[in-house]
Design brief:
By secondary structure, the chain is of the alpha+beta class. The chain has helices at 2-11, 17-24, 28-41, 73-84, 110-121; strands at residues 60-68, 89-94, 101-107, 127-134. A hairpin with a 6-residue loop joins β2 (89-94) and β3. α1 (2-11) packs across α2 and α2 (17-24) packs across α3 (28-41).
Length: 144
Amino acid sequence: MNRRILREMTRDGRQTNLQLAERVGLSPSACLRRVQEMERAGVIRGYRAVLDPDKLGIGFTAYVTVGLNSHTKAAQEAFERAVARAPQVRECHNVTGTVEYLLRVETADLPAYKHWHTEVLGVLPQVQAVTTFVVMGSPKDDRA
């Protein structure tokens, strides 16, 4: 039952408890109790607004792989601190494979991305290799 609640909440996080209870087949009190239990347990970590990138002036999205020139903990921590300060980086994942990081970067346009690539990412001493994958479209995107 909790999975049904989570699926419905992921689809529409602003619905009322009454609507949610009706959709999952529980009484409103039982539904609210389950949601509150999942919040306390940390299963539900928070609620977010889904933003329209076009209306925010974000016309360019890229996934960027980054390989570091040093595989030390200090190099990784320094890179992660720098990335945390960059508002263009919307996601940063430490991954396995031939590179250390996968980033999702959003900027207004290609010139803004080039500036970030050159003036922010390109000046980090830990960075050895960068590959950019430009997003042409997103037929499915379930991120909230």
